[in-house]
Automatic annotation (TrEMBL):
Protein name: Transport permease protein
Main location per the UniProt record: membrane
Record keywords, A-Z: Cell membrane, Membrane, Transmembrane, Transmembrane helix, Transport
Membrane-spanning parts: 30-50, 62-84, 105-133, 139-163, 175-193, 229-251
């Protein structure tokens, strides 16, 4: 059992290194992922921010959690794209003919998504600091925020895996991310849900992004968290388990 475990970990490390080399050689991927969320942040802070009533003095503090989720939703589309290209080029067939753990190639892409999205998140937070973002959160709160974002990234990445393995075209591989990117706009990410029409408000308050945004916002501002963090974690775990299960089923079908 120990030998099998070590074998899997070493194979996964090799696949992670392979995927990371693609990222390092093409840093424009990370630049592209960060440009749109930063543009949204600038737009909302300097154009719409003065007209939006959130009950806070610093709109950047209110806005940042939603911007981070948009960045992650944008970043995972590249995971689907890279998986699709590997499938099209027969890379997985070559890997399956080698004495390596079959799921190691998938995990290489998933872990690369975690690393690249973490880099994007850090860049966006640094830009937010320039725009006036300030947080009184302690180390534990920041670690909790990092954990929630990592879990959210994992959950969405496995959805990206399904898209990358199932798509018939490059456009189809990345198009799945558009509805996910749009979700923060119908949540508490940019405006309080109380200001929305009743039907839109009902959807906004029940969808996962609102709970995740509210939990991160409370942690960063040292406000009482309440049940939001447990709702956020539940959503992330449920999405992760379902997406992972379907992704492995699709992968086994493709590999057989």
């Amino acid at each position: 059992m120990e030998t099998v475990k070590n074998h899997f970990l070493s194979d996964m490390g090799i696949m992670l290194g392979r995927s990371m080399r693609h990222i390092i050689r093409s840093m424009d991927t990370i630049i592209t992922v960060t440009i749109m969320p930063i543009a949204f942040m600038l737009l909302f802070v300097y154009v719409f921010g003065g007209a939006i009533k959130t009950g806070t003095d610093n709109y950047v503090n209110y806005l940042l959690p939603g911007i981070l989720l948009i960045a992650i939703a944008t970043g995972i589309s590249y995971t689907a794209y890279r998986l699709f290209m590997d499938m099209q080029r027969g890379i997985f067939e070559r890997f399956n003919s080698m004495p390596i753990a079959r799921s190691a190639a998938l995990w290489g892409h998933v872990l690369t998504s975690l690393v690249s999205n973490a880099i994007s998140v850090i860049i966006i937070i640094l830009v937010a600091l320039v725009l006036g973002f300030r947080s009184s959160a302690g180390i534990l709160s920041w670690l909790t925020v990092a954990g929630i974002l990592a879990l959210f990234t994992l959950a969405l990445t496995w959805i990206a895996v399904i898209a990358g393995l199932s798509a018939k075209s490059v456009d189809g591989a990345s198009a799945f991310s558009y509805p996910i990117i749009f979700l923060p706009f119908i949540s508490s990410a940019f405006v309080p849900t109380e200001s929305m029409p009743s039907v839109v408000r009902a959807f906004a308050e029940k969808q996962p992004v609102t709970a995740i945004v509210d939990a991160i916002r409370a942690l960063l501002s040292r406000q009482p968290i309440g049940t939001e963090i447990w709702i956020a974690l539940t959503w992330c775990f449920v999405i992760l388990i379902i997406a992972y299960s379907f992704a492995m089923l699709v992968y086994k079908r493709k590999a057989s």
